[in-house]
Amino acid sequence: MNELDAAGITGPALRAAYTACRRINAHHGRTFFLATRLLPPRTRPFAHALYGFARMADELVDNPAPGTDPATALDEVAVMVARIFDGGTPADPVLTALADTVRRHDLDRALFDAFLRSMAMDLEITEYATYADLREYVHGSAEVIGLQMLPVFGTVVPLAEAEPGAAALGEAFQLTNFLRDIGEDLDRGRLYLPTEELAAFGVDRELLEGSRARGLPDRRVRRALAVAVARNRAVYRRARAGIPSLREESRDCVRTALVLYEGILDEIEALGHDVLNTRAVVPRRRRAAVALPKLLTSAWSNSRLKVRT
Q1: Residues 31, 35, 37, 38, Cα dihedral to 10°
Q2: 187: buried, middle or exposed (CB in 10 Å: 19+, 13-18, 0-12)?
Q3: Mean pLDDT of all residues belonging to the chain
């Protein structure tokens, strides 16, 4: 039985919509896609749909098609999302899958509104002074993703008790993105690491941009990034503490995603925090070492279930 059958997804258009989201996840989110292989087949399509929507909106902002206005495109998506919560079904395949996922899992509209607000912030705000200033952006761009996934993954405690861990997971991943992608973000005119935190180490945007242009690391930048990595690891500890709140069948997926994504911090440290011109990537051999044993166990469990049914 394939994933769509297991999830009870019928009808050619709806199946095609979920398949499109799966392709987006496989192409753009390799770490999360690998982790979703550890979910029960009936759960995977809904995780792909939520990822597909987040990626679609993010691409509108970060990589707009030539001749298009990202603000207008984002407004159009917001209108279509509002229609979903009013009972409509958009023609766009990603939003079609999203609409079905929202209805099946009774997802909260406020999470999607917060997400779209953060995407719009990227079109208006180029830097933040403190982590407190960054708070709204991180909530909308990352924490809400964890909160959206929570009803899909399921919990063994009341949903509200599991929400802090889910939000921390989204925050941890986003802070890692800020560190890994600092050079690319600078090229887009954005700086997510708080300027006051950087200034404590004698680092400002001019120094970062100059170091990137010259391809030469700077000890002040390295020291600032080392502290940011330590802060990020503390958030991963909070996220890890929330994993037991999840339904048992979902824990390996989240645990694997967490281990692999935190592994990016290990690679940043291995590079001596010189990430302005080098992208920190978890090697395939490590990805395989973390995920493969669990994937084999999951495949064995699923095959036994098929035999029994």
Answers
A1: 170
A2: exposed
A3: 93
